[in-house]
Write a structure and sequence with these properties.
Blueprint lengths: L2 H14 L4 E4 L5 H10 L4 E4 L3 H8 L4 H6 L9 E4 L11 E4 L14 H13 L6 E5 L7 H11 L8 E5 L18 E5 L2 H12 L6 E3 L3 H31 L4 H8 L22 H11 L6 H24 L5 E5 L15 H11 L3 E5 L13 E2 L11 E4 L4 H4 L3 H8 L3 E4 L6 H7 L2 E4 L9
Parallel strand pairs: 1-2, 1-4, 2-3, 4-5, 5-6, 7-8, 9-10, 9-12, 10-11, 12-13, 13-14
Antiparallel strand pairs: 6-7
Helix pairs in contact: 1-7, 5-6, 8-9, 8-10, 8-11, 11-12
């Protein structure tokens, strides 16, 4: 079959919603994506190498689904698999949404991507067409190189194989930034393929679709997006350290600066977490080194953001007047209203408390399970369990935290010291209740 006939097959399959789509990786990106394509009318299979994940999904259980507020699909055009050979041979489009972490030296770890692409190539039907779309964050050139390596490790000559890159952009837990909302960038091996796949992604989002000239442009765009965000957040965090020393509240300063039309505001805090911002800049830093560019901004931003949990712990000690004996940390997830604890800055924050001598650290996070917490902490299932604490720290601005009856907690906790590392509470209201209230970037008690 000629390339033009193959693309026509793809075009007709998108219009008729009869392309079989397999999404590899049933996490915070893959699962919502799979459901969105199914809701758009496509037959969809989900694939994950974790038997625990598969068992949970087949039983209709998923914290991700609960946070999305959606029900599981059903019927013959939806299924979940754990083995590539059970679904890839009958797949038309394979979308890869697997993690791209860093190793202990903070170097890119492409093992999940390489293993997924190798498994897809070795399992596909060589007599059928297959489009592989990578959504995971990688350095420019990675998609082509990994596909070429997978082909070289097999007897597959690549006939009927198409490749593209479309970086994921969703923000779990944030209204208006889900799969169906965000714009997408698509790079493919040909302009014609990019245009066809633009139609595919247009079926699941109301955001704009931007086809670009190459796979490498799309790969680079993803790195730039998150490296820039990390730098912006680092500057806000730096301001939260500097402004109080000048007797200024960083939030008031940022609010004033935001009145300028081109100012992009970020809120300082405990640090950054999740699968993108703490990780992706390292992919950028390493490829800059490869091409002989001595990047200074991104490494500095990373180090500053890495330092924020320790800075917040030291602020708690300074403002409290020493190391408290018992600390209640409210929230452990890396961002509000999700259960995701990947790279949460609360983990190093809690380690800093323990290393300084805090004897009992309690964590209350209604979205996070006990197995997700460090063994050294005590999980509090209900705030009624609190008899007495020396210090309360807001770690995550969950709605359940922000909307808490703070007068009630003040009365039962036998503590008046409250530190807001997320700037999610109104200081005046807390002080009116009676709290000895402190917050990151707030000048009260700051060293002048």
């Amino acid at each position: 079959m000629s390339k033009s006939m193959q693309l026509n097959y793809l075009s007709e399959g998108i219009k008729g919603r009869n392309l079989r789509i397999t999404v590899v990786g049933m996490g915070y990106v893959g699962l919502p994506s799979a459901i969105s394509f199914h809701e758009a009318g496509f037959p969809v299979w989900g694939l994950d190498n974790s038997e625990e994940v598969i068992t949970s999904l087949k039983a209709g259980k998923s914290q991700i689904m609960e946070e999305m507020g959606k029900a599981f699909p059903s019927g013959g055009d939806w299924d979940i698999f754990s083995k590539y050979e059970d679904c890839i041979p009958d797949t038309d489009v394979a979308i890869v949404c697997v993690p791209t972490p860093v190793d202990n030296l903070r170097k890119p770890d492409l093992k999940p991507v390489s293993e997924s692409l190798n498994s897809i190539i070795s399992s596909r039907n060589p007599d059928s067409n297959l489009v592989i779309i990578l959504e995971s964050t990688v350095q420019p050139g990675t998609t082509r190189r990994c596909i070429e390596e997978a082909l070289s490790n097999s007897d597959d000559d690549g006939e009927g194989l198409f490749i593209a890159y479309c970086p994921e952009r969703i923000s779990p837990g944030e209204e208006g930034f889900g799969v169906g909302d965000v714009s997408r960038v698509i790079g493919a091996e040909t302009k014609e393929l990019a245009e066809e796949l633009s139609a595919l992604y247009a079926s699941i989002t109301k955001g704009r679709i931007f086809p670009v000239s190459s796979i490498e442009v799309a790969e680079a765009a993803k790195l730039v997006e998150n490296a820039q965000r990390d730098i912006d957040i680092a500057f806000s965090n730096e301001l939260s350290i500097l402004m109080p020393k000048m007797g200024l509240d960083v939030e008031e300063v940022l609010a004033a600066a935001s009145t300028k039309w081109n100012f992009h505001r970020h809120t300082p805090g405990m640090g950054v977490g999740g699968h993108c911002i703490p990780i992706d800049p390292h992919y950028y830093i390493e490829i800059a080194k490869k091409y002989g560019v001595d990047s200074s901004l991104s490494p500095s931003a990373r180090e500053l953001n890495y330092s924020m949990p320790l800075y917040n712990a030291n602020e708690v000690f300074r403002l409290f007047g020493g190391v408290p004996d018992k600390v209640l940390v409210m929230g452990y997830a890396y961002k509000p209203n999700v259960s995701d604890t990947r790279e949460t800055p609360l983990k190093p924050f809690i380690s800093s408390l323990a290393e300084a001598g805090v004897s009992q650290i309690m964590v209350w996070d209604p979205l996070v399970g006990e197995s997700q917490l460090p063994e050294s902490v005590k999980k509090i299932n209900s705030l009624t369990e609190i008899s007495s604490v020396d210090c309360i720290v807001i770690g995550t601005a969950h709605d359940d935290v922000v909307n808490l009856d703070w007068k009630w907690l003040f009365d039962i906790s036998n503590s008046s010291f409250l530190y807001d590392s997320r700037r999610c509470l109104v200081p005046e209201k807390m002080e009116e209740i009676g709290w000895n209230f402190h917050a990151i970037g707030r000048p009260l008690g700051a060293v002048q």
